Amino acid sequence: MDEPVSEPIPPEPPKHGGPEHGGEIRTGTAGLLIVLAAAFTVSQFYRTAPAVIGPELRSGLALSPAQLGLAAGAFFIAFSLMHVPIGVLLDRYGPRRVMAAMLTIASAGAALFSQAGGAIGLVAAQLLIGAGCSAMFVGGLVVVSQRFPPARFGGLAALLTSVSGVGMIVSGTPFAALAEAVGWRTGFLIAAAVSLALAVVIFRAVPRRGERQPEQAAESFLRSVLDLGRIFRHGPVWGVIALAMVSYPSVIAVRGFWGGPYLADVHDAGTIERGDILLVMSVATIVGAGLYALFERRTTLRMPFVYLAAGASALGFWLLALAPVSSSFQAALLFVLIGTFSFGSILLLALARDMFPDRLTGRAITSVNFTSFLGAGLMQVIPGIALGLWPAVDGHPPAEAYRVVFAGIGAVLLVASAVFTLVLRRRIAGGWREWLAQRAEARHDNGAGERRTD
């Protein structure tokens, strides 16, 4: 079952543009990538902004650690559950309409967040925001897969991830300063307005390619959903899923929420200091993804980087758990280590994309991303439950509780890597054989050229 699904690739629908098609803007490659990156940037902001204001949410809304974890996890749970219909909708209606509509929903969720009066309102807002953001990244990847050759998919996906890290940067020190100046409620109202404006830009700028035209027969919605079964019946994809459920979730466990409370509770960091440290971690994720995007063009090997990312992240969590981290500066260094090697989740999506034909691209990407964000939700909720098992010290969990949580995350990363290796062992071995053969052929050609020169 190691061979990818194969079937004829359907012809591309005709391209459309110009004023006769609803005023759609003709967008160049650079402009299109900027718009797609902006959409993902907004999603990155929403998923990481609560980390900066976590202690303020806890005190202002009188939330327990478990309630905080549920509120943080609600975004990711809604995000993941929406991937099942989003994958179908992207393949059926095209990313332009789906991304614009879903970002409008996220805007409504941000407005609700700004008015939350307790745990219920906060969770409801996070569910709306998470559902609305669910189409931003995978929608952008579908556009990339439609417009660029498969060989460039991994690098462009990493590039989009790198650029969209601006959202995490904005949710660090800039959002911390805004929250101190005007309050976190007003901050989220501003985010809601920006999101709504971007939804309009997406509707105007993203090409119509991939949308069903009136003369084309519609694929039945039931058929679209049943095609998801083809993805999950493909054996090798489960190795990717196993690691995807903890690769990105482990990083977002820190950057998405619990990094902020950890810095406040263990190292007594204030709002601006928390923002600074989380901003630096965000920059590290951008640099790591950007460096991989550049390097991918020079190699055909992906598997070593998958293991490098998982291993480095596990090391960072174990150092947080076992090393004498006595200052926020030392904690920041370990946050940077974890962030720098967060590109592993992008490689897993690239591996999944290569397993299936173009017609299933949207569903293949969203299926794996669904499991990744389901894991991200659990990585927010479970630490909250675990931290709540310790008696509070000065109104918050003790340092020992955080160390146990971080050690558990590091262990789960290694277990998932072992499952990934076991399921994909034939594909991994075949990739190495192919790479060694290419190297041998290149050396042979170089030797022949040198002999001809002599």
CATH superfamily: MFS general substrate transporter like domains
Q: Any idea of the CATH topology?
A: Growth Hormone, Chain: A
Low-confidence stretches: 1-26, 213-218
CATH architecture: Up-down Bundle
Give a topology summary:
Elements: H1 29-60, H2 65-81, H3 83-93, H4 95-114, H5 119-133, H6 136-147, H7 153-164, H8 166-170, H9 173-182, H10 184-205, H11 221-232, H12 237-267, H13 271-296, H14 303-322, H15 328-340, H16 344-353, H17 361-387, H18 399-423, H19 425-453
Helix pairs in contact: 1-2, 1-6, 1-7, 1-10, 1-12, 2-5, 2-17, 3-4, 3-11, 3-17, 4-5, 4-6, 4-10, 6-7, 6-17, 7-13, 7-16, 9-10, 9-13, 12-13, 12-15, 12-16, 12-17, 12-18, 13-15, 14-15, 14-16, 14-18, 16-17, 17-18
How would you describe this protein?
This protein has helices at residues 29-60, 65-81, 83-93, 95-114, 119-133, 136-147, 153-164, 166-170, 173-182, 184-205, 221-232, 237-267, 271-296, 303-322, 328-340, 344-353, 361-387, 399-423, 425-453. With 454 residues, the chain is an all-alpha fold. α12 (237-267) packs antiparallel against α16.
